[in-house]
Structures are given as structure tokens and as C-alpha cells.
UniProtKB/TrEMBL annotation:
<dbReference type="InterPro" id="IPR050807">
    <property type="entry name" value="TransReg_Diox_bact_type"/>
</dbReference>
<dbReference type="InterPro" id="IPR001387">
    <property type="entry name" value="Cro/C1-type_HTH"/>
</dbReference>
<dbReference type="Pfam" id="PF01381">
    <property type="entry name" value="HTH_3"/>
</dbReference>
<dbReference type="GO" id="GO:0003700">
    <property type="term" value="F:DNA-binding transcription factor activity"/>
</dbReference>
<dbReference type="GO" id="GO:0005829">
    <property type="term" value="C:cytosol"/>
</dbReference>
<feature type="domain" description="HTH cro/C1-type">
    <location>
        <begin position="25"/>
        <end position="79"/>
    </location>
</feature>
<keyword id="KW-0238">DNA-binding</keyword>
<dbReference type="GO" id="GO:0003677">
    <property type="term" value="F:DNA binding"/>
</dbReference>
<feature type="compositionally biased region" description="Polar residues">
    <location>
        <begin position="136"/>
        <end position="145"/>
    </location>
</feature>
<feature type="region of interest" description="Disordered">
    <location>
        <begin position="124"/>
        <end position="145"/>
    </location>
</feature>
<dbReference type="InterPro" id="IPR010982">
    <property type="entry name" value="Lambda_DNA-bd_dom_sf"/>
</dbReference>
<protein>
    <submittedName>
        <fullName>Helix-turn-helix protein</fullName>
    </submittedName>
</protein>
Length: 145
């Protein structure tokens, strides 16, 4: 519903977020080839409640999202962003790949993201680290025959 002047009411924004997170969870579940019933068991959430979340009828709490993320074996941060709890992280596809890596701990992921972002800021500012600069000017000697 819209108010005069075309503005959306706050309740509509909540409904949109609930619908968006539900669709995202459904997509993740489908790509993981997990049934609704399996995910409800893995996440410790009732089957009807999970179904309501996926259909956008219910907006889950951060705690429920964390349980669902564990069941899907994805980062809770990804679900928090989709649900509007967290802002979209920076880093593009590299950041997404780091966050999606299931073999890294959350701490390791954060350290990698911090280093990556510092390099991006350096490059954007036009400053290059001495190591990167040295790598550009280093030549490999030719072998003599």
C-alpha cells in the first residue's frame, strides 16, 4: 500500500523484507538440494514456521536466521543482509567468495576481508604499497645458453 504522494508505509517495507528473505532462503535450500522438512530439522525450526518464512508470511528473528544459516551451511551474515538487519558488505565477488568459504572460520574470513579492503582503499587512493611496487619493477633474469 502507498500513502498519498506514492510513499510506502513502514509496514509495507517489513512485508517486502519478509518476502525477500523467504525467497532467498528458498533459493538457497533448493540449490543445496535440501527439502523443507530436512532444513526444518537441521535448523531446529518447525516445518510450518519455516514454510511461512519462505512464503513471506513471517519475518524471522536474527536468532532464527542464524539457525537457518547453520542448516543451509551458509554465513548468517548473508541472511542478515537479505533480511535488512545488516548493510550490504563491500568487496564484490571476492568478498562474497571469502564469506561463502565453508573451510574458513569467521575470524579468518574477517581478517582476509580486512586485508582485501585495505588494498582496495590503497589502490583507490592512488597509493601502492612498497611490496606491490617492487613486484611491478622486478624483472626475471634471462637464462644464458
Amino acid at each position: 500500500m502507498t500513502e498519498p504522494g506514492g510513499a510506502h508505509r513502514p509496514i509495507d517495507k517489513v512485508a517486502d523484507l519478509a518476502s525477500g528473505i523467504g525467497e532467498y532462503i528458498r533459493q538457497q535450500r533448493s540449490s543445496a538440494k535440501i527439502s523443507l522438512r530436512q532444513l526444518s530439522k537441521l535448523a531446529g525450526v518447525s516445518n510450518p514456521y519455516l514454510s511461512q518464512i519462505e512464503r513471506g508470511v513471517r519475518k524471522p528473528s536474527a536468532e532464527i536466521l542464524q539457525q537457518i544459516a547453520k542448516g543451509l551451511r551458509i554465513s548468517a551474515e548473508a541472511l542478515y543482509v537479505q533480511a535488512g538487519i545488516l548493510d550490504l558488505p563491500t568487496g564484490g565477488p571476492v568478498g562474497d567468495a571469502i564469506r561463502a568459504d565453508t573451510e574458513l572460520t569467521e575470524r579468518q574470513k574477517q581478517v582476509l576481508l580486512d586485508v582485501y579492503e585495505s588494498f582496495r582503499r590503497e589502490n583507490a587512493a592512488g597509493t601502492v604499497s612498497p611490496a606491490a611496487d617492487a613486484a611491478k619493477t622486478t624483472t626475471i633474469p634471462e637464462e644464458s645458453t
